[in-house]
## 1
Amino acid sequence: MDLGQINPLLLLASLMVAATPILLAAIGEAVVEKSGVLNLGVEGMMITGAVVGFAFGVNTGAPSIGFVAAAFAGAALSMLFGVLVLYLKSNQVATGLGLTLFGLGLSALIGKPYEGIKAPTMAKWEIPLLSDIPVLGPIMFRHDPMVYVSLIIVALTWYVLTRTRAGLILRGVGENHNAAHALGYKVIRVRLMAIAFGGACAGMGGAYISLVRVPQWVEGMTAGAGWIALAIVVFASWRPWRVLLGAYLFGGISVLQLNLQAAGVPIPVEILAMSPYLITILVLVVISLRGNHGAPGSLGREFHATH
Amino acid sequence: MIRLEKRPQPSKVWGTLTPVLAVIATMIAGGILFWMLGKDPLEAIRTIFWDPLFHETFGPYSRPQLLVKAGPLILIAIGLSLGFRAGIWNIGAEGQYIMGAICGAAVGLAFYPSESILIFPAMVLAGAIGGWAWAMIPGVLKVKFGTNEILVSLMLVYVAENILASVSQGLLKNPDGMGFPGSRNFRDFPAAHNTDLIAGTGMHWGVAAAFIAVILAYILLTRHMLGFQVRLTGEAPRAAKFAGVNPTRLILFCLGTSGALAGLAGLFEVSGPSGQVSIDFNAGYGFTAIIVAFLGRLHPIGILLAGLLMALTYIGGELAQLMLGLPGAAIQMFQGMLMFFLLAMDMLSHYRVRWKTPAAAQEGAN
């Protein structure tokens, strides 16, 4: 065992990379849930984004095109969920589960020819000046563009949700859909847009795993990241900056766990590998002790306008 | 203009009709999918749904497989359906299945090479307890702290998979296995082996248990107070509260039962068809069972039929892989599609579809 092998700077830098997929998926889901819809299909949209992004990335040689394609794929899949839940009034929990099962099958089918290929590398951005700051520079300012895109998305989500009229309407629809409907807001349209945003974010998050984090296509490679994203939304009490905090905390745990494995710590590999899931459970318990503050009032409830 | 009108009560006719329609719609959509993959759609559908049962050469081999695959699916789905009816979402059956298998197998292997007839019953008991205990984790966390059972039960699947990887390379590894991972094979351990009850039919103890579970669930739901409470909580939660239904008891009962049944399914699989504890002995039955439960409309008899149908798609899928070179993942997607069509068509049993001219709609609004 050699703990000295673990470089804290590298650890912190890889934390941001490890957290980005979950961060993207969780911020998207936070918006969906803020509009009053519970989409349990995050895992399915992520894995579909992972395979579609990878396929486009490999075929065009440009990871950026892969990310755009993954966003569209995630959004397209989420629309399937949206139509079922909003227009055909299907049960949200069951439909979300169905979406995950469907996405896992779909991705395995699309991904067959891409197994064992390496993804095109994504150039890192060394932000001028900032990246030269000692210590902080290498940790925060020498990443690939998607890390910054994800941070910008969090900031924009916070701004739109809390500082704009559109955000107010979205929250209103999520808190009480009947009241929002009575005021003349288009509940279904707002929710459909939120679901599409959530799908696009989950798709990009998945693509980040297959294009940057791993970078390869392996069947079922998201390995529960979508579910962890759902847990982080609860942990964050549906607040954008706390989603960021939760995702980075989680990223830290998973990176630390991998580093400990590599350093040969005398803890069985399986215990280390299951630790992110155990910690997620622990966090969920702690959060529920505090009570579910901040859950949108209409979350998961069916909306049926009678007139 | 199309309007949806909520029915005062879900339609029984549409309730039975929708699964059938969903299967037909899936066959059509699946046919298009297979056609896009460059296969003859009619041949693919026939290979999946007809050949496993009636083909001269494959039939005799596939028919027993039908029960082997349907057994665990039905057993797990019956348990899940109780919770789903009451709005308690155990989606971690895969983990409970694994833990049941590990616990049951461990008890059996501990007594190797004993020939006592008590070994198999002890294994069955340990399997049920293993699955039950694993499901009690989300159960107790939910009743004590109000923790979301969906996320906890799912997280525990990944934990169970890691435990499985660990024991199949360590604790339960075959000491005579020359270092290969995986436990002793139960085929070489007659007292603990779950063989066919009637040779060549695929009818092992797990299938028998599945049939018994169907009957017991039917009695529970139609004749017993607890079953009534499950139904009431699902259909009218407020009424259930006023009627004095104890939610804690109900949550623990639903999660515990589904866990125990999933654990049983795991034990019967590991000691029978699969034969040994190995890293990848679990085949995703715990997740497919969710589709089976919904396809069977959460009704015991429906689940029995749905389990048989889903087993058919597994076997037919393998056959199609072999005969037509259809990718194995196509079947997984096919099963997912079935769930979607089912949920979409469910609307017909809850709502009445009305066509209205714009003028009439206007009038209705005023």
Note: Chain B has a mean pLDDT of 86.
## 2
Amino acid sequence: MNSLILQGVTKCFGKVTAARDISFTATSGRILGLLGPNGAGKTTTIRMIANILTPDEGTVALDGRNVGQWSQEKMGYLPEERGLYKKLKVTAQLRYLGALKGLGAQESAGKVEYWLDRLGLTKWGTRKAQDLSKGMQQKVQFIATVLADPQLIILDEPFSGLDPVNSELLQEIIAEMKQDGRIILFASHRMEQVEQLCDDICLIANGRLLLGGDLREIKKSFKRDKLVLEYEGDVPFLSAMQESGEVQILEWREDGCVLQISEDCNPRALLDRVLSIPGLELYHFEMLQPSLNEIFIQTVRDEA
Amino acid sequence: MRRKILVVTRSEFMRRVTSKTFIVTTLLGPLLLVGFFAVTIMISLSTLEDDFDGPFGATGMLRIGIVDETGVLGDRIIDQGAGGNATLVLIMPDSLDNQMTRGDVDAYVRIPAEMITANEQPVLYSVDGDARRVQWTLSEAIEWALKDYLLAENNISANVRAILDRSVFLEIFTNDAEEESSEEVEAEEGYYILGLTLGTLMYMGILIYGTLIMYAAMEERTTRVVEVLVSSVRPFDLLMGKVLGIGLVGFAQMAVWGIMIVGGTVLASPMIGLFVDPAMYDLPASATNQEILAAAEIVLPSISPSLFIWFILYFVGGYLLYGGLFAAVGTMVDSPQESQGLLLPLMMPIVISIIFMGPIMIAPNGPLAVGLSLFPLTSSVPMITRIAIGAAPYWQITLSYGLLLGAFLTSIWVSARIYRASLLMYGKKPSLKTLVGYLRSG
């Protein structure tokens, strides 16, 4: 199995430490989400993986070998700050970027054709990049990333600027590549996308890795402390519970409410009490798993 | 050479030579060039020629009256003539006023009677300043007439006259160190032309293609292609490929121009013949280019193969070094406006090397000449001039060229560092301090 392993990676710019002692492992056939607020050190970390920057300390290894010139040919990187040569035709652009990744002319021609077709851009191949809409340019950039069949794919905000249909198409392709056994890094601010796509996550803030590992395990490790109640009738003791601090009513809904339950509150006892109210119809009782967004906010806040 | 340098070189070359702009400028370039040379040649010929009827000289015939109070010099002066498309006529002092008012003469010269005995000088009176152009020739004619008269008066023999007419002109010969034979080297102007040609070619080449290199480096940052690129290729290879690729575009264009100009002059009527009238040099109308050139005393320097090779080498070296420096500027700025302040000091060394050509030729082994021809930013023009004169020792040429190539590689290396560092500076104004910091950590 292929893997990308970061061990104790640190990078400073003058007095600023952009990344401090970052370690994680990304394995093939899985998508690893890199999360973090702006300026957290995500891009610096990615650049060290892409061999654009060299770590001051620590190592970045792909398949057990330190990254370098050799690994750049095995890697496709779609940066957040990205663009195309405005006046160059799409096909020429892709062939050039492919050649820089070591693709031969013939091989590259076939692949460019395949990908343009796959992303519905065939008739745009002979046009200059500046004639394309922003969304189309995004797709061309995506093609450039995957053109040379990279073993490691790094996607930084790949869906920004794409409409839902094209986002879906890209997600489909990313899923295929995961199936195919590639190592995929996915950096984003969009929590719901990370939650939906990723198998593992790394949460980085202030240049440090705050949280990392299997997404489901991480979510499990966070307590379910939110309760959704849907019912018909009246639950008279809720106000008293709120006053005593056992629960906090977060939201009133037409047919119920969302509660934040404290340590003192036993959800099971609460359920019994609700069920014992005469004439009350209970439709829904659910202990909610914290969302990635909540985990993110909580972790970053705790750190601060 | 690393494969990726080739990939970049080929891409930069191909995308430019296939562009419409390239094709149009390549085809129109020679026309502009011919036009430019035509104007230059016409200007210089019109000032060289005795008669000023060229398009840029004064026009029209001048009639100059000679008011001869001596009674003996007038005819002699008229025989001698004043050239410059001026006709000399003898007029009587009493009819002078009439002739001037009628416009028969445009100016007149009074030859005072005391000129022969005392040293009184003749004076030219002119309505406008036009007669000024014959001041020297007319002075010579009067001087000759005076001496001729005085020599005749004193019964000076023909022998003595012949002695007085003798003149000396110092010719300059140079030893060609390599061929160990003494051969006449072209007149000093020849070296000058050689140095100037190299200087001008470099200046133009750098101005046109250096700017292209600068824009190319700038474009990748402003369009944000740069991050994808540096994740595929080392910045050094990328910039090296860029400088070589665009450099080759320049050579290709100049080669096409060269072929078109050579072909054009062979096929069409000789260019020089368009501007020089063979009759002017008493040559038949069928005279060849060489004959006309020889008669007009226009000496084209004959260039030895080794000098030619050095010429090409220095052109390429200087051109590439400046290409690397322009690439560095391109990696530092975000707009052409920002580059203005940096380009001027960058072009100064070439201008300086052209300005100092005079002193270098006077003392080709002086400290100024040696210093300028070793310093990479200025070395091309002075060194090629010194090689042509035969003044540059072999070790200096080798050292100078080594320094030039070293400076070229350094310029690419520095550009590459800045290029990589500039990734970290999106949206920030690059201060020298942060730049140096990034250069160290990059």
Note: The mean pLDDT of chain A is 90.
## 3
Amino acid sequence: MFDLATAAVEGALAAGATYADARSMLRRDEAIDVLNARVQRVDRSESAGVGVRALIGSSWGFYAVADLDHASARDAGAMAAAIAKASAEVPGTPMPLADVPVTEDTYVTPHVEPPFDVPLSEKVDMLIGVTETMLEVEGIALARGSLQFWESDTWFVSSQGHRIHQKIIESGGGFDATAIAESETQRRSYPQSFGQFETGGYEVIRRWDFPGNAYRIAVEASQLLTAADCPSLETSLILESSQLALQIHESVGHAIELDRILGWEAAFAGTSHLELSKLGSHRYGSGLMNITADATIPGALGTFGYDDEGTPAQRVSMVDEGIWVGVLSGRDSAAVAGVAPGGMVRGDSYARLPMVRMTNVGLLAGDSSLEEIIAETSRGIYMATNRSWSIDDKRLNFQFGCEIAWEVENGKLGRMLKNPTYTGITPVFWGGLDMLAGGDEWVHWGTPNCGKGQPMQVAHTGHSAAPGRFSNVRVGVLG
Amino acid sequence: MIDPHAIADRVVEMIGDRAEAEVVVGAGVSALTRFADSFIHQNVGNAYQDVSLRVAVDGRVASGAVDRSDDEGLMNLVDNTLEVAGLMPVDDQWPGLASPAPAAEVEHWDDVTASASPEERAAVVKAFVDAGQGYEAAGYCETAAGATAFANTLGQRLSGRSTRATVDGIHRTATSAGSAHQTGPGLAALDGAAAGKLAADRARRGMDAYDIKPGEYEVVLGPEAVATMAIFLAFYGFNAKQVLEGQSFVDLGAQQFDGALSIWDDPLAEGGLGIPFDTEGTPRVPLDLIRDGVTMGITHDRRTAARLGGESTGHAFPGSALYGPIAASLVIDAGDDPVEHLIADVDRGIYVATFNYCRVLDPKSQVVTGLTRNGTFMIENGRMTGAVTNMRFTQSFVEAFGPGRVLGVADDLRFADCEFGAGMVQAPTMRLAGFNFTGGADG
């Protein structure tokens, strides 16, 4: 497969590219979905092909083919160069590339149980059992469970001499219970909305103990139907760690993407409220806010050996004690902005142009605990597990809905609340972070569905978080 | 390029009498020229081929897919999928395969678009950028051409092909942005200069925007905003799986909407997009969802149809096992009035060009939150008087279209971009009695 990528690069160079790289890939995935003890879908798919990008002047040209022969790969390289040349009709300034080490290496995701070696019947039986347990709870109309696994082999070659083989293994899944009344539906999910995903093998699934949590989750979904609505007020908001992880993803992770800041995503994903001139001085949040982009965290979903430009995985500070200090970047965007390349460029398949993506963008742990946070809150609301999310194109105005909440009064959890929502403005919200848990409450959550780019690409990203408290947040926003 | 029908037939032949099986083979070329900061920065193309197989072995169902078309790859797909099916429990809701039936002889195909060069896409981009006269432009021009073949072991064989071309972009100033969108089956019909002019005009008029108080306002919604509302209704409401699961607002036969609202799905319409059958081999035909405000129908695949005692409406797609059958060739009935007349009738309200980042808070009530983007203007005494800053809304889409709430429908029906993508909805501008804005985007 190195030969295929090499042929593609040679084709691009012969056609006039000043730089070219290519990825030949083999990927297989398995998806299992169960609804109410019935299998909805069992799907095993494979894909294979080569994608090559060629740089000429101010533009990348990219072409991908599913054929695995040298002639097709070389032709794809020539096509990529031809496409890049056509961009000269609407030119910009020549696109520079930041230097990175030229590497020959192999990386394999550390794992214990290869997920494709675990019998399908074991996986299906586990999910059926989980949904049966949830259906034992009165009021539960829909009980779903799902598992998904990916194994991706990539052979990366660049015209500068990179030769890197990576095998990335990702495993994840989850389940949810939905209770339905005449005019409303209430859902609880585990481990989080859309499930939990990590790099690693089937040990990930075993560790989260789906069967042991199914009944509790279903009971909570049922109880939500008779819970009181979340009141509308401004109060202290305590977020469970998976909701805080999504808050990080949406209001920090996307905002610090350098391609957005440079305007390269302006028409679709959007831009950012951040201005490069304020890098190193802009206050993003309180002193408890320390954010890193760390592609080296063992087991986290955004962990790899090298990004899709051959840049080694690294740990980069993004927010240091509340001050914005870093951006997510690739070789081109870093060179344009004059910063060090961060190794954060990935494509979601061989057929897509790699672009700036989050790795593991997470909040470093604090020194408190959820128990302490609740004990030190005289009045507030504790919200858990995302239900909806919406944020503007500058990543400034957000509104999140959660599946469940509880009142907090005089240091204790009170009654359950349904339909909890909160809204805020990014730097104001993060400025209110005044307590943060850590220890074993710090979790490397995985987001398997981050959309960006045209054509659309779906990235798998990681977000470490622990429960945290935010002051003076507007909650209970409804139409 | 491969011959999709030959590949589909080959897979059915490999299956033999070992299972019930259906095969969908797609092949084509898609290309997208992307620009930002007024230059082309990402320019991509992709020659694709996909072979999808679903089998049922004595009611045990499994599916698989590959992007190879050689015999070894196809044989692996067949063997692996059969093996997986053998490990599954019996699916007592397996609806069986589609019987042989002809599909409409409709082809939304344009040779020029199918062979479009990167230079031709760049020319559309250049026209869009130049129309901004110095504003910063960003967006894309896309051409796509694909052929699809279906075959199953009952003998159903169908094929179709389609093309699509889109130009979509914004012009922006330091404080504002305006958008424009055109989609159709042919590249030649795209007018990059006109799109660029509209986007630049919205950007220019959007400067010096001011904040207004949150609250309920009368609105005039551009086709993009209306299209997003329509696709949300289709996905979360007029979807038989949502109905079966008790999560839909749909009440068949009831006057749930304003009498001025009619929405149907029509993949066969002249100038439309797509192919005349679904991924289960069911021929597609026009389907009324709302007629004069009355809820008329829901979309089915074979599974939901069997469970509810009807016929598939031809709305299966690769994700329908999970998400249900979705209408994606929506048409909203246009009115007779030009947009200016709708605006002229508004004493005080807001014009919204597009919505952004819309998410359902509750599927049953269709309460959705999202933001305005790329063109939000104040209307006073029948005129657009200035720009307002982007706003967040939290609003039930069902209630917004409810009886007495649609005050006008314009004559500007066209393919409009929506939250789920381009080419799925043809929508006009509409005037609605109220929309609940819950905050400004900048705080």
Note: The first strand of chain A starts at residue 19 and ends at 35.
## 4
Amino acid sequence: MANKLDLTIFQKRGYDLFVAQDKQALDELRNEIFEKAKSLVPYKGETVEIFFNGFHSYGLTSTELNKFRLEMIGHCTKHLNVNRRLHSIFKNVLTELVGSDVAAQRGVNIVIQPPGDPDVSPVHRDAPANSHFEVVVWLPLVDVFGTKSMYILDKPKTEYGMALLQSGKSYGEFASYTTSQSQDLAVNYGSACFFAAGMAHGVHINKEKETRWSLNLRFKNLFSPYGPKGLLEYFEIIQLSPLSKVAFELEKKEYEQQK
Amino acid sequence: MSNKSKKFYSSLDTGFTTQVPQAIQHIVVAKAAEEAGGVVVFYTMEDHYTLKSHEVILGRINDKPDISGIIFFRVAQFLYSGKFDFATLSKVLERGLEVHFAREKLSLHNQAELDEAFPFFYTLQETQSRNRAFFNSMLKDYSEL
């Protein structure tokens, strides 16, 4: 019997790193993303690691990079079934966190951050306005470290930062606090950071010599509260428990009798 | 009928115009019609008194118009009574008309697809209807878990 997953750190900090349960499936997904990416540039024959890490050598302008990224997002969302595959790859963690009735973000976000790129996500929390009942999966497709990674504040520090804003401090003061207290995550490819939607997080300008490729996607229990990003337009059902399948069948009969 | 020649009725959300003005709803529905392979040929809106019963749009389709389907602005138009209006959607589909929801990018072409989507609608109804007090009561009990 496999060891039970330890989620005490997640509960204390609001985030933790977890290794993929199905690394082979993750490799397959990454290779399919690689196949699409190399079809969109004058590919030079590199391995997947060298291609992703050295992507800045292709010299895309910010406009070209954004177009490239949107095309990748469209392809991954429409053709690669990323939400269901990530759920399967990290099933042990996600089942512990959100249960067996699962809603997942319909479209996957892909972020490509070349060295020196000034267009970075400033410190923010997803919730609120999103629901706190969401977990964000942040999955780097290459090893990340230092400013090539993202930073996150644990739950106590996030709460302190929010107290600063609530006490009337400016966003600049809040950002200074969060930057000084944040921790750049060191994550090897094959692991992902899972964090509660209310944790403060952001990205520094990448001062390393490699490009970061990462995916992010949100999962939640189907029956948990929703924020403005609701069921159907933002989340879709990707798994139902056997009990819920029976329950929906029975409930549907009552609705059919309306006719 | 080829995809290029599809004609749709548009049914905007009368109860939501304060948040999303009618003009914006028109733009979103027109885009949804384009993505469904056609154009909007007529638009309608429920009266405030028919939000729950959908009598306006049902009256229109009783005239058996030459259209492929109806594009609604959002699914919540079927939740005004507090209980998801499965029957009206069934009636529209039984007439061989497609149903599209612009905001959710959701399309239904027949009863089987409506049946398959039932868990979405039911869960939407249930999660939207719970008030904050429900969660506050859960928080009160949380320390005992």
Note: The CA atoms of residues 4 and 115 of chain A lie 39 Å apart.
